[in-house]
Amino acid sequence: MLQVLACITQQHDLRLVALAAFICVLATYTAFTLVGRAQEAPPRGRAAWITTAAVATGSGVWATHFIAMLAFEPDLPVSYMVDRTILSIIIAVLISGVGLGIAMSQRLDLRLLGGFVTGAGIGAMHYTGMWAVRLPGVLTYNLGPLSASLIVGTLMGGVATMAGFARRDFRHRVAGALLLTLAICAMHFTGMSAVVIVPDASLPVPEATIAPFWLATAVTAVTILILALGLVGSTVDQHLASRSMREAERLRASEQRFRQLADATFEGIVIHIEGEIVDANLAMCTLLDRPLDQLVGQQIWEVVAPANHELVRERIAAESTETQEIDLCDANGRTIPVEILAQTIPFGTGTARVVAVRDIRERREAEARIRHMAHHDALTGLPNRTLFHDRLEQAVSLAKRNGTTVAVHCLDLDRFKNVNDLMGHAAGDALLQQVARHLNNSVRAHDTVARLSGDEFAIIQIGVTHPDGPAILADRLVELIGQPFDLDEQQVIIGTSIGVALYPGDSESGEELVRAADTALYRAKAAGRGTYRFFEPEMDTRLQERRLLERDLRQALAEGQLEVHYQPLVECNSEALLGFEALVRWRHPERGQVPPSEFIPVAEESGLIIQLGEWVMRTACREAAKWPGDQRIAINLSPVQFRHADLAHKILTIVEQTGLAPERLELEITEGVLIEDTEHTLATLSLLKSAGIRVSLDDFGTGYSSLSYLQRFPFDKIKIDRSFVWEMGRNADSMAIVRSVIALGRSLRITVIAEGVETPEQLALLQSEQCDQVQGFLLGRPVPARDLTQLMTDAETAAAE
Ligand SMILES: Nc1nc2c(ncn2[C@@H]2O[C@H](COP(=O)(O)O[C@H]3[C@@H](O)[C@H](n4cnc5c(=O)[nH]c(N)nc54)O[C@@H]3COP(=O)(O)O)[C@@H](O)[C@H]2O)c(=O)[nH]1
């Protein structure tokens, strides 16, 4: 060690030694910095950085050696052989490159080995450089220091790389650089202390050389330039690399955010390039029931329903951005209706199509539900009137093309209203559902059973090949609906009336076919119900007649062709005049006298009964109010009038306006009034009754459940139907009924009137049974108002006698 120190202090120019040390620190620092860059660089760029590090480090270390050599003052002129000096530079560069290349490894053993190689390489450079020295003497080495210099240099090289590459930060780089500088200096000066120079005058003196100071300055300048270039390059590159790393990081984060965003949407997103899927979000994978790695690389045709391939191809070609509904196929081959919206976006170096996919299964189901609701009856689930007419038009068009026959059956349930009224609406609904099921089971799959309204059903029987086909079906339906139905553990028997019309034959259009079937239904009902009738052209004539009658009645109301006649109501025993029943009369200018039994049903069907009824009520009340006595006035009310909510209000207004005492007014209603919407009817009647108006139950005994109505409303009077009165003398049953009704009235304290009394015998029988009142041609025919004064005077005279 002392020998080394003596060598440094006594045989070297210390200023140049300091300069060499400075260069060495700079070179070794550059070495660690550049190798650090190589470590961080992508594999492709590493070789370039190692090469740069090798050149910078090799030249720096060589410069250190060379300046240190210039600092050496052996008291003899010294020069250097160019070729050997260049060789020493090459060795420095090559072995530094190899050593540092190994040392940059993550493995500790390789890092140590790299340090050893670097240290040894510097030794090799040093002794090659010494080999280039020329002086007038013999230069030999002491083996001990020589070996020591190589061992020290090699070992310390290892220590320096271990320290310098332990971490990639400035402190470790500096520590490594200082240790490597120490290694180089130790190796150099130990090596120099091994030098023994024996002057030899016989050897040639080297030619005058450039002063060591200037040589050192030139080498230093060039070296610093090389090292500075290396360092600046490394710093700039590191800056750029960290910027691009930050960019890449930002890109990665943005991509991740985009994916999270895309995955968070409910809509599926798929990106494809000319049909090849390159990415998709989570919703898309879930929709198609395929993992992302299965989707990526697939052609979109594999997920689009074949029927939509052409359409999708056209959209891609046109770069369409319009929304479109198509079908996709999932992994299980299920069809998924979706709405798509596509955009062309920049993607990598080219473009791609990004497609937003919305699952519209729920929407389609809701639409289907709404469509179904719009075309089906909610209670029975059968097609409604709208769908029925659509299907009928289709069936007729098809029959026209194929030359086949279509039959339309219009059905009306008989006595359904009774069930509804007596057992309640829930039972009525259950019955309609059972009927619907029965009808559906009776037809073939391609026939249509529809519910048109209330208890009206219709059937379209298509593809009729056998001429008896419609009759066979109608027969079966009458039979089927005539069977008892089970309702709430009770059996009910209803029945059905059916009208049948055929295409071709009865009509050319669906609408007319229904009208014809309706006409036939009317005839089936008129024939006593529980049967069917085929449409016949003559039925249509009747229908036409009804229409004409309706037109004329409308005109009659407008032109005042109507009149009210009054028929006496008489006390049975005394035959005293009690009042009159108002009966409407129509004298048509051409038709002559039209009976109410003909035009009242037409008025009820057309709704004209509202206007007509109000007119009769006002006319009769006004007339009765003028009568000198307090005779009562009985006025008929139709069931149709009760469907209007303001009936009670209208009657009370008329009574008030005409000045008739309410107690003098009797309203005659039939069972038909009570069958429809009983609650509303009873409320109307109660209101009228509470105003003092009397209420009579007309045609008693002809209805289905006359007796039950007596329990439900406190009628003032019941009128025995004239059919019983006519049969009294001939038919014991009719007599028994008349007797029972009179007894019933007496026990319930309800007045009983018998109508249709035409003979003195009938009157005598009724008197013997103590009937309260009578009405009939025997006691007085309906007469116009102008004849009433005479009639009342006669009655007064008769009473006085
Ligand atoms: N809603 C309204 N209905 C009315 C009105 N005017 C009449 N009508 C109803 O029309 C039906 C037929 O009535 P009409 O042809 O007037 O016959 C009535 C009497 O003329 C007839 N009658 C009376 N006595 C006899 C008789 O001895 N023999 C016989 N063959 N017929 C007789 O009975 C009819 C009265 O019946 P009713 O009403 O049941 O008391 C008829 O149902 C009328 O109700 C009206 O303004 N509004």
TrEMBL record:
<feature type="domain" description="MHYT">
    <location>
        <begin position="12"/>
        <end position="198"/>
    </location>
</feature>
<dbReference type="GO" id="GO:0071111">
    <property type="term" value="F:cyclic-guanylate-specific phosphodiesterase activity"/>
</dbReference>
<dbReference type="Pfam" id="PF13426">
    <property type="entry name" value="PAS_9"/>
</dbReference>
<feature type="transmembrane region" description="Helical">
    <location>
        <begin position="177"/>
        <end position="198"/>
    </location>
</feature>
<feature type="transmembrane region" description="Helical">
    <location>
        <begin position="47"/>
        <end position="72"/>
    </location>
</feature>
<dbReference type="GO" id="GO:0071732">
    <property type="term" value="P:cellular response to nitric oxide"/>
</dbReference>
<feature type="transmembrane region" description="Helical">
    <location>
        <begin position="84"/>
        <end position="105"/>
    </location>
</feature>
<feature type="transmembrane region" description="Helical">
    <location>
        <begin position="16"/>
        <end position="35"/>
    </location>
</feature>
<dbReference type="InterPro" id="IPR035919">
    <property type="entry name" value="EAL_sf"/>
</dbReference>
<dbReference type="InterPro" id="IPR035965">
    <property type="entry name" value="PAS-like_dom_sf"/>
</dbReference>
<dbReference type="Pfam" id="PF00990">
    <property type="entry name" value="GGDEF"/>
</dbReference>
<protein>
    <submittedName>
        <fullName>Bifunctional diguanylate cyclase/phosphodiesterase</fullName>
    </submittedName>
</protein>
<feature type="transmembrane region" description="Helical">
    <location>
        <begin position="112"/>
        <end position="133"/>
    </location>
</feature>
<dbReference type="Pfam" id="PF03707">
    <property type="entry name" value="MHYT"/>
</dbReference>
<keyword id="KW-1133">Transmembrane helix</keyword>
<feature type="domain" description="GGDEF">
    <location>
        <begin position="404"/>
        <end position="537"/>
    </location>
</feature>
<feature type="domain" description="EAL">
    <location>
        <begin position="546"/>
        <end position="796"/>
    </location>
</feature>
<dbReference type="InterPro" id="IPR029787">
    <property type="entry name" value="Nucleotide_cyclase"/>
</dbReference>
<dbReference type="InterPro" id="IPR052155">
    <property type="entry name" value="Biofilm_reg_signaling"/>
</dbReference>
<keyword id="KW-0812">Transmembrane</keyword>
<dbReference type="InterPro" id="IPR000014">
    <property type="entry name" value="PAS"/>
</dbReference>
<dbReference type="InterPro" id="IPR001633">
    <property type="entry name" value="EAL_dom"/>
</dbReference>
<feature type="domain" description="PAS">
    <location>
        <begin position="254"/>
        <end position="316"/>
    </location>
</feature>
<keyword id="KW-0472">Membrane</keyword>
<dbReference type="Pfam" id="PF00563">
    <property type="entry name" value="EAL"/>
</dbReference>
<dbReference type="InterPro" id="IPR043128">
    <property type="entry name" value="Rev_trsase/Diguanyl_cyclase"/>
</dbReference>
<feature type="transmembrane region" description="Helical">
    <location>
        <begin position="210"/>
        <end position="236"/>
    </location>
</feature>
<dbReference type="InterPro" id="IPR000160">
    <property type="entry name" value="GGDEF_dom"/>
</dbReference>
<dbReference type="GO" id="GO:0016020">
    <property type="term" value="C:membrane"/>
</dbReference>
<feature type="transmembrane region" description="Helical">
    <location>
        <begin position="145"/>
        <end position="165"/>
    </location>
</feature>
<dbReference type="InterPro" id="IPR005330">
    <property type="entry name" value="MHYT_dom"/>
</dbReference>
